[in-house]
Design brief:
Outer Surface Protein A, domain 3; eight-stranded mixed β-sheet; S-adenosylmethionine-dependent methyltransferase activity; alpha/beta; DUF7782; single chain; three-stranded antiparallel β-sheet; DNA_methylase_N6_adenine_CS; S-adenosyl-L-methionine; globular; Rossmann fold; 17 helices
């Protein structure tokens, strides 16, 4: 795609009001929801008026040929140029899309040029309306659940430099360009690199996005960044040496989860002091070994780390998921039953041979603090948390990641003054008429929405944290109120208070 075409195309898309909100309004809630499930039939009846907006929806989102006269009205002076670039095809008075171009709705106000409206060009969405799922090895994925999940995970503070590792069509680079002075986006797929450059120009951030060809960190050798965001090709499968044998957007060519381990171990070498690396990943659960024990061995010594396992599926379900994704399942693709069964058996057998009993999906967040916590270090401030958290969280989750880092860095002692986070609620459960509750829970309404069971002492201490008294005085007062020894109470419960601060139930009061 020629970058000089991006400006005129953007003008046409704006003139047609081809934005996320306008498309949603045209289709209505039911048809819009159906389209998110790759079903176009409900939308067809709502896009028949020949208007520029309806024409663009039919052409790109519904993958329907449109009359050439309507296409010219929606894309004035551009149809021939787009055909020459391979974005559309002209035939017998009609125009059909060869690439997908869609508005991108995001809650990130800084994304792109900051206008709130983004467009992403990628390969066509496969398997619309139950058509065979057929993708080539160099397929360039568009906006997907994985890309939106990573976008919601990524911190959005202003930074000097950011790296989108494995950019694909450039979705993360568009987000990063909204709050980074300089963005580098890397990939090994030439088609992805071409589309990422075009999308940067289409969204008026081409001057801030440097797209480079190369594998993983090779194109940025010797460079450091304030923020790295990556959704690497993490599918856990047998190694394949030939790029033609794999789908580059999801398969790294490395066996198992080595690609994720490589990213985690290597990223700190490319992080500036205080920098973050945020990874969306799969990892193998091997035998009876706890997943967190295995991943802890990957974590670098000079980084704090928050690793969150969001989901676990068994090997059979995992193989089925990705064989359907690649179009090898006869129900969704053009493959034969015999070929599907052979691929299924080979992949599943390989996983079993590796001792894989499950596959975890989640987030890996590394924060380069420089503190190693080793015996010879002057600091023991390295913080690691590996947590299994399949529960509902607030999206975007990025503010909660930043809050975690702040909470873990807080120093809490008896002189600290604390307040309860505003969204924390106390729940009590017990028999009807009982004087004391059987269970007391503290529950967050925002962020990770953590819940924590506490006893009456902790509940009383938390209830008294109003920013006035230091926590040491509160512990003494609660001990006296409950007839407990003050010294023993402080020794036992101060670590509980520290933990509550670390999980952001309590917040330190900042000195004026």
């Amino acid at each position: 795609m020629t970058p000089s075409l991006a400006g005129p195309l953007r003008d046409a898309l704006l003139a047609a009001d081809f934005t996320y909100d306008a498309v949603a309004g045209l289709l209505g809630a039911e048809a819009h929801a159906a389209l998110s499930r790759n079903e176009t039939t409900p939308a067809l009846g709502r896009t028949t008026d020949g208007s520029p907006l309806a024409t663009l929806v039919r052409l790109f989102l519904l993958q329907q040929p449109v009359p050439a006269v309507d296409a010219e009205r929606a894309l004035p002076g551009l149809v021939g140029r787009l055909a020459a670039e391979g974005m559309v095809a002209e035939s017998a008075g009609e125009v059909a899309a060869l690439l997908d171009c869609r508005p991108y709705g995001t809650d990130d106000p800084s994304a792109g040029s900051g206008t709130g409206d983004l467009w992403v060009v990628s390969d066509l969405t496969p398997a619309l309306d139950g058509r065979p799922q057929q993708v080539t090895g160099d397929h360039v994925l568009g906006i997907s659940p994985a890309s939106t999940s990573l976008a919601q995970l990524t911190l959005r503070e202003d930074v000097g430099s950011a790296l989108d590792l494995g950019t694909g069509c450039g979705v993360q680079a568009l987000h990063l360009a909204g709050h980074a002075d300089r963005v580098v986006a890397t990939d090994i797929n030439p088609r992805a690199l071409d589309l990422a450059r075009f999308n940067a120009e289409l969204n008026e951030v081409g001057d801030r996005v440097d797209v480079r060809d190369g594998s993983f960190f090779e194109p940025v050798a010797g460079e450091r960044f304030d923020l790295i965001a990556t959704n690497p090709p993490f599918v856990i499968s047998p190694a394949t040496g030939s790029r033609s044998d794999r789908l580059v957007y999801r398969d790294s060519g490395m066996p198992g989860d080595q690609v994720v381990e490589h990213v985690v171990r290597t990223a700190p070498q490319h992080l500036a002091d205080g920098g973050w690396c945020q990874v969306l990943a799969n990892w193998a659960i091997v035998g009876d070994r706890p997943w967190d024990e295995r991943l802890a061995g990957w974590l670098p010594d000079d980084c704090d780390a928050l690793v969150v396992q969001r989901e676990v599926i068994d090997p059979s379900a995992y193989v089925e998921l990705w064989l359907k994704d690649s179009g090898h399942h006869p129900a969704v693709g053009a493959g034969t039953i015999a070929d599907y069964v052979a691929r299924y058996d080979a992949w599943l057998s390989w996983l079993k041979d590796q001792g894989v009993t499950g596959i975890g999906f989640g987030w890996i967040n590394l924060h380069r603090t420089g503190a190693t916590g080793s015996a010879g270090s002057t600091s023991s401030a390295r913080h690691r948390e590996l947590v299994d958290w399949p529960y509902d969280v607030e999206q975007p989750i990025a503010p909660a990641i930043a809050e975690w880092a702040q909470a873990r860095a807080a120093v809490v002692d008896p002189s600290s003054t604390l307040v309860v986070r505003p969204d924390v609620r106390q729940e009590t459960v017990g028999p009807v008429g009982a004087e004391d509750p059987a269970t007391i829970l503290l529950r967050q309404q925002r962020g990770f929405r953590r819940a924590r069971q506490v006893d009456t002492v902790v509940a009383a201490v938390v209830g008294a944290c109003d920013g006035e008294l230091p926590v040491g005085a509160i512990l003494d007062a609660v001990a006296q109120l409950l007839g407990l020894d003050p010294a023993e109470t402080s020794q036992r419960y101060l670590p509980e208070v520290v933990s509550l601060v670390g999980e952001a139930f309590l917040l330190p009061v900042q000195a004026d």
